[in-house]
Amino acid sequence: MTKILSLDQQMEELYCLSLASQREGNEKDREKMKAMVKKAMQRELTSRQFQCLSMYYYEHMTMDEIGRNLGLSQSTVSRHIKAAKVKLQKLKAFVD
Q1: pLDDT of residue 83
Q2: Structurally, how many domains does the chain consist of?
Q3: Cα(10)–Cα(29) distance, rounded to whole angstroms?
Q4: Predicted local confidence at residue 72, as pLDDT
Q5: Spans of the chain below 50 pLDDT
Q6: pTM of full prediction above 0.85
Q7: In a domain, 43, yes or no
Q8: Measured between alpha carbons, how far is 49 from 76 in angstroms, rounded to an integer?
Q9: How far apart, in Å, are the Cα atoms of 86 and each of 5, 57, 95?
Q10: What is the pLDDT of residue 6?
Q11: How many whole angstroms separate alpha carbon 81 and alpha carbon 54?
Q12: Given this model, what pLDDT does residue 58 score?
């Protein structure tokens, strides 16, 4: 009998494999990469873009929460995050 996995099960298996590979010595490399990305963010983004992107991705806050903390509307936070991502993508394309 063939076992058919649902998409959720497949994603869970991939996630578990990813976690296993991270525990096998890639932690140091991941930390270096995080530091490099953070430096690029600080150099290339406005302070507001940096704040919004950091809160969104590193602190796992919602756009609404970020807006309340910074005194901005959710749509303004969204625009800052989008602009920051565009800048970083252009930088990545330039470096590649």
Answers
A1: 93
A2: 1
A3: 26
A4: 97
A5: 1-7, 10
A6: no
A7: yes
A8: 10
A9: 36, 15, 14
A10: 44
A11: 9
A12: 85
Q: 84: burial class by Cβ within 10 Å (0-12, 13-18, 19+)?
A: buried
- Residues 77 and 57: their CA atoms lie apart, in Å, by 13
Domain-embedded: residue 65: yes
* CATH assignment at residue 89: 1.10.10.10
List the domain range (segments joined by +) for residue 41: 31-95
Q: Can you tell me the distance from the alpha carbon of 59 to that of 82, in angstroms, rounded to the nearest whole number?
A: 17
Show the tokens assigned to 16: 């578990």
Residues 22 and 77: their CA atoms lie apart, in Å, by 32
User: What per-residue string of b and e applies to 85-96 under the rule 16 or more CB within 10 Å gives b?
Assistant: eebbeeeeeeee
The pLDDT, as a whole number, for residue 8 is 53
What confidence score (pLDDT) does residue 70 get?
97
- Residue tagged 């394309």 (tokens): 93
- Answer positive or negative: Cα dihedral of 79, 73, 51, 15: negative
71's tokens:
């005194």
